Amino acid sequence: xxxxxxxxxxxxxxxxxxxxxxxxxxxxxxxxxxxxxxxxxxxxxxxxxxxxxxxxxxxxxxxxxxxxxxxxxxxxxxxxxxxxxxxxxxxxxxxxxxxxxxxxxxxxxxxxxxxxxxxxxxxxxxxxxxxxxxxxxxxxxxxxxxxxxxxxxxxxxxxxxxxxxxxxxxxxxxxxxxxxxxxxxxxxxxxxxxxxxxxxxxxxxxxxxxxxxxxxxxxxxxxxxxxxxxxxxxxxxxxxxxxxxxxxxxxxxxxxxxxxxxxxxxxxxxxxxxxxxxxxxxxxxxxxxxxxxxxxxxxxxxxxxxxxxxxxxxxxxxxxxxxxxxxxxxxxxxxxxxxxxxxxxxxxxxxxxxxxxxxxxxxxxxx
Length: 367
What we know:
Blueprint: E1 7-13, H1 20-30, E2 35-41, H2 47-53, E3 60-67, H3 76-86, E4 94-98, H4 105-118, E5 124-134, H5 135-142, H6 156-167, E6 171-175, H7 182-193, E7 200-203, H8 211-214, H9 222-228, H10 230-239, E8 244-245, E9 251-257, H11 263-273, E10 278-287, E11 290-300, E12 303-311, H12 318-327, E13 344-350, H13 355-363
Parallel strand pairs: 1-4, 1-5, 2-3, 2-4, 5-6, 6-7
Antiparallel strand pairs: 8-9, 9-13, 10-11, 10-13, 11-12
């Protein structure tokens, strides 16, 4: 089967209230092709699917509701089974997927990538990953160098999720543009470009965009998306010995150290001494009291989180570790005789910070 005959899948992501369902309804209203729709909602009652189902003038042939879970994790296998079944629909020309507001688009894309690796004749492909952004919320809560984030009890993981959705996509829908002045929208674009320098922008009001701009037949480039965020670019520049500085005065640096962090000291740094000039940071670290787990550390302004992410290969037993070496020999390229693959590596992005002072403060947290 030629590539052109495969069914394009458009993934629509974005945080709660950004306007994903409104956008999807607008796309369905315009579409003249035969399309299927998958709607994912975390609740037991799928409200979003009900809204889509009530849209007028669509050519929707099938709609699948996936509730009480998320297609990026608990419902991922079920989600892929539904995509496979939908792709068998005679005459189907496209599939739209509305992810839940707390979905990780990278994880969803990985599911498609894994399927394609084992099924070279897969009848579908990811055409685009679209992140819908509420520009008014970005302006009021996340702008101002991320210094003015609210002091309420909002989960910091949610703030980081919003940024991760922006970081991993190839198109950003700037929705609710009628709520801001043109100069304010320009400021939002600058802020987003700090973490996602490559994705295409589309400005709109109430999700009204040209459907052809989204469903254009191109194939989503997973590797490009993974490397398009400023976080990834900084790591690559650091490896090459280059610096990162853009037209808005945003610079970045990478902190690396093999020795473990003292958990209490590091958490104190995050909670009390984290520099306000840093817009975004993200990385993987390890603690002296836990040599087994990789910790994901990330911040967006004053919001910070540290969570267990996976296990270090060095913590595996001999048999499992050797199996990793046999299957992924590149792991040995960075293997340390004392610490194995354990490494603290954190990317910092911001304006007007003192990188040497930050590095010195971090070294004070090392055991």
